[in-house]
Amino acid sequence: MSLALPYEIGSPRFKETAHPAPGIWMHHLELMDSSQLDGEVEQWLRQAYEAAG
């Protein structure tokens, strides 16, 4: 899963974080099964959704 945010989130859960353009940080999260979709991931998804709006 890739999440675009206007800031970097420092978490060891991200496989890779890239800064492809000013104001955009791409966070790449490798999910192996649905049990990894926890509250922390939900919060990141919400932040990405709000930032895209």
How many angstroms separate the termini? 19 Å
The biggest sheet amounts to: 3 strands, antiparallel
Spatial shape:
globular
Structural class: alpha+beta
* Widest beta sheet: strand line-up: 1-3-2
- Share of residues in helices: 25-40%
Beta fraction: 25-35%
Count the DSSP helices.
1
| Radius of gyration (Å) | 11 Å
Query: What string gives the helices and strands in order?
Result: EEEH
Description:
The chain is an alpha+beta fold. It has one helix and three strands; from the N terminus they run E-E-E-H. A three-stranded antiparallel beta sheet has the order 1-3-2. Strand 2 and strand 3 form a beta hairpin. The mean pLDDT is 96.
How would the blueprint of this fold be written?
Layout: E1 2-5, E2 14-21, E3 24-29, H1 39-52
Antiparallel strand pairs: 1-3, 2-3
